[in-house]
Design a protein that fits this description.
205 residues, mainly alpha, 73% helix, globular
Length: 205
């Protein structure tokens, strides 16, 4: 039986192989069969780790905002939980994987299918976040949908700005110094826009 460590290693190997091929030839020019063959697995195994061709690239963006809200500590508001989650994420040094990030950005920018996939992913992320916020105590309706849309847009804008800075040649250290401030600005604006929401629910868990 394959261990979780082995599964993680195989998943990373498949993703790395796919990114290398996509960077060399373009996303649209490479088939799933070619990725599987280059990675040394059958196509069924590849799809067991990545359900679509797009997910071979977009898995890097997969961040479960709904889970962060649902699993926040007692007394913590959803916005505070999300702010702390992202500050924790950017605390990890980016230097070791900057080449991969730069390659990913270029691959996405050059593929209409991936650009559309990013948009679709953000929409799915917002829908899941709506459900989590309603479960956290926010009444269902247009307000909670606006909240979720603004949160997803704010976070994705910070992420994309960080990626673009790296792609433009900024050092990981310099980009990392800026992203913390970007996150605080984003969440400060969200808390101003949805001040009542940032306070509700903190004492209900």
């Amino acid at each position: 039986m394959i261990t979780e460590e082995k599964r993680a290693q195989r998943r990373a190997h498949i993703a790395d192989t796919a990114m290398r091929l996509f960077a060399e030839r373009g996303f649209d020019a490479v088939t799933v069969n070619e990725v599987a063959e280059a990675a040394g697995v059958v196509k069924a195994t590849l799809f067991g780790y990545f359900p679509t061709k797009e997910s071979l690239v977009l898995h890097v963006l997969d961040d479960d905002l709904a889970r962060v809200v649902a699993e926040r500590v007692p007394g913590q508001t959803p916005l505070r939980a999300l702010r702390e989650h992202y500050h924790g994420a950017v605390a990890e040094p980016a230097g070791s994987y900057v080449p991969e990030l730069r390659a990913m950005v270029r691959v996405i920018q050059r593929s209409p299918a991936l650009v559309a996939g990013v948009s679709r992913f953000r929409g799915e992320q917002a829908e899941a976040l709506v459900k989590a916020l309603v479960e956290a105590g926010e009444p269902d309706g247009i307000r909670v949908r606006l909240m979720a849309a603004h949160i997803v847009t704010a976070v994705s804008t910070v992420q994309e700005t960080f990626f673009q800075r790296l792609t433009d040649g900024m050092t990981p250290l310099a980009a990392g110094r800026l992203v913390g401030g970007d996150l605080d600005l984003a969440f400060d604006l969200l808390e101003r826009a949805f001040g009542e929401f940032s306070e509700f629910g903190g004492d209900e868990r």
